[in-house]
# Entry
Amino acid sequence: MKNIRKILKITFGVILFFLIIFEATVFCNELLREKRGDVLDFGEYRAEKNNTIDVLFLGSSHVFMNVLPVTIWEEADITSYNITSSMQVSSISYYYLVEALKTQSPKVIAFDIYMINQKYPDEWRARLAMGAMPWSANKIEAIRDAIPDEYKFKCYFELYEYHNNWNRLMEYDYKYALKKLFFADNVSFLKGSEISLEKISQANQSYNYTPMYSMPDEEAYSYNLEYIKKIAQAAAEAGAEMLLFSAPCPNAGMTEYYLERVASDLKEAGFDDIKILDVNKYRNQMNFDYSRDMTDATHCNSTGAKKTSRQIADFLKENYTFPDRRADADLAELWDSQIILLDEYIDNGIYRPWTGGAVSK
Amino acid sequence: MQFNSLQYIAFFTAVTILYYILPHKYGIRNFFLLCASYYFFMQWNVKYAILILISTSITFSASLAVDYFKLRNKKGWARFFLAFCVILNLLILFFFKYYGFFTELSEDLAAFLKINYSLPIIHVLLPVGISFYTFQALGYTIDVYRGDTEVVVNPVKYALFVSFFPQLVAGPIERSYDLLPQFDEKHVPEYTNLQQGIFAIFWGLFKKMVIADRAGVIVSAVYDSYEKYSGGMYFIATVCFAFQIYCDFSAYSDIAFGSAKILGFNLRRNFQSPYISESVGEFWRNWHITLSTWFRDYIYIPLGGNRKGKFRKYLNVMIVFFVSGLWHGAGVCFIVWGLLNGIYQVIGDISKPVREKVNSFIGNSSEHGSYRLFRTLFTFFLICLSWVFFRAETVSQAWKMLGGMFVFPTWTFTDGTLLSAGLSASELVVLICAVGILIFADIRFKNEVSIDTAYVRQPVLFRYGILTALYIAVIVFGIYGSQYNPQDFIYFEF
# Structure
C-alpha cells in the first residue's frame, strides 16, 4: 500500500512537471513568436461557431491575399474561411484541412493549385506554418510527414529560433500570449485573409496567355498530387465537394494547364465530382485590370481581392447548394457587422488582429 | 554529448527509466550503468573509451596487487605496485596532456641555449575528463594502500566507479569510500530525490546558459582581441570571466549532482559559495572542493602539511598550487595562476599577525559587516587578478591586461564601449539580474544546507513556481539556438 502511494505520488509529480513544462513552453512560444498576418490564426478560426463555415479555401498567399471571405458573404450569403499559410504546399494544406475539419463541416473545400510545383516551403515558412497549428497528434504528424528533416526540430521547438525575441517584446505580445493561454480568441473579420491596403496599384502586370504543355517539375507534381488526393479523400469523408481553383494570375496559360491536369488526374483516381474555377477566365466579366488590381504577379490589392471574391461568390452560388445562413439571425448579424469592419480597415487603417483593435495610420 | 543538450535529456531519461526497471541483483543495474557510461563517453570519441579502459585496468589490477601484498605484510611490494600504478597513470596523463607543452618548452630552452635539439612532434587529441578520472582512480589505489577503503574485486563495479557518467567528464572527483558502497545499494525511485535532482539540473542549466555563456560573450570579445580594448574593459571582462568560470563549472557539478540524485546516488559537493569568502584560503576551501581536498589528502599532507615548520608548510602550499595549475592546463599561464594563488596564501599567512594588530588598533573585527564585506570584495579582487592568467593565452597578454586594468576610465560605462563587446544593453541587464540572483543564493546558502536541499523543504506551490521560473529563464534567456555555437563546459578541457 505504501509502495502504491509512493508510485502514485511520483507519477502525479512527473505528470504535473511535464504539464507545467509544456504549458510554459507553449506560452513562451506564443509570446516570442513573430506575429504575422500571413498564416492562419487557428485561435480565431476556432472562435467561429462550430459547423457554420460552408467553404474552406486552402492555399498560399495566392489565396489569403486574393480571397476575402467577408466579401463572399456580402455577395452571396456564403460563409467561408481561408485555411492558409505563406507558401503553403499541398502537404501542409492537407494537415491544415484535417485541423480545420475538427470544428467545421464545410460543403466545399476549395484548393488553389498555384503551389503545385513546390514540394516544401522554406525553413522560415515551415516554422511559421507549423507554429500556427495547435498542438495535437495532427500537428506532430504534419511535422513528421511534411517538413524536411533539417527543419523538424525547429518546428517542434520553435523557441530554438525565436527565444532571442525577448528583447523586442511589446505590450501586444503579452496580450496575444495571454489570449492564447486562456483560449480567449475572438472571431476576426479577416477570416484568414491578409489584405494589401493599396486600392490602385502600379505594378504594371498584364494579362498574358501563353499555352503550357508540361509540368516544370514532375517529381514535385507527383508528390503534391498524392496530397491533393488525400485532400479530396478528406473532403469526401467530410461530405464536402472539392473545387480546384486559381485566383488571378497574369500567366493564365499556366493556371489553365495546372487546373486541367490536376482535375484529370483526380478523375483518374476516382474523384469524379470535381469542379474547376479559373478566375482568369472571368476577367472581362468581373472587369479585372491586371495592371491596376494586382500589387505583383500573384497578389491582388484590396480592389482586386474584392473583385475576385465576388466572382468566386457568384461561382459558388451557381454551382453549389448551401444552407441558408441568414436563418441564423445572430450569425448573419455578426457577418454583416464584419463587412463594415473590413471596409473600415481597407479605408482607414493598419489593423493587426493580435493588438485586439485597429491601429490608426 | 553535453549536459545542456537534448541528447543528454533523452539519454538520461532512458537511462533512469531502465535503471529502475532492471533488477538490482547479480549486479545487473551496475552493468547497465557501466554500459550507459561508456556509451556517454564514446559520444565524444570512441577512442577515449580505450584510454579509460586502460586506466581502469591498470588501477584495478594494481590495487588488487597492493591489497594482496599488504595482507601478506610485504609492504615493499605493495609500495612498488602503488608506485607502478601512479607512475603509469601519470605517464598516460603526461603523454596526452603535457607532451606538446613539454616539447615546446624543451625546444624553447634548446633555442635559448643554442643547442640543436628537438623532440618528435606527436599530435594527440586531449581526451575529455582524463585529469578527473585519472585522479579519481589514483585516489582509489592510494586509499587501498592506506587501508582507507576495501579493495574491489568486482571489475564491473570498479569500472563503474571510474566511469560513472554524471561525474565522468568534469567531476566531482569522488572518493572510493563515498561512491563505491553506493553501487551496492538498491535504489528505488524517491519523490524527494526526483525533486531535488530536477531542481539541481535546472539550477545548473540556469547558471550555464543564462550566466556563463552570456558572460562568455564579453570575455571572448575582450580576451580574444585585447589589443582593441583598454583598462576598463579588461576589468569588466575579467569580472565576467570570474562569473563565467564559476557558473560554468558549478553548473556542471550541479547537473552531475542532480542526475546522480535522480538515480539515487549522492555525489560530493564541489562548490560552497566560493566568491563569498573572506580570504583566499577560504575561497580555496569552497572552490572545486573535491580537487582541493584531493590535493590536500594525497599531496599536501603526505608532503608533511603544516607539521614540519613554517618554511616546509609554505613550500608544500606552493607545490600543491603549482601542481594545481599544471593540472588545469598544459601552459605557463596555468602554472603562474596556480603559483599566484599559492603566493596569496603564503603572504596571507605571513602577514596575519601584522593584520591582526592593525585591525585591533583601528577597531576592525569580523563582527563588523562592513569589514567582512571589504574582506570579501578584496578576496574577490585578488581572485579576479589571478583569473587573468587563467584566461589569457600568454603571460605577456596577462601582464598587459593586468597593467591596463588599473587605468579605469569611468566613461567605459557610458560611452558605448561596454556595448561594443557583443552584448546589448538589455542583454547586460539580464546578465546583471541573473548574477544578482546567483549572489543572493550564494549569500543565503553560504553556511547552511545547499540550495537544492532547501528547495525540497519548500511548500509545493513555491517549488513548482520556482521550477517554472527557472525553466522559463533558461528557454527564454539562455544562450542557445542556431545563431550560437554550442558552448562546451570549460572544465571539459581539463
Q: What stands out?
A: The two ends of chain B are 17 Å apart (CA to CA). Chain B touches chain A at residues 189, 191, 194-195, 198, 424, 426-427, 464, 467-468, 471-472, 475-478, 480-483 (CB under 8 Å).
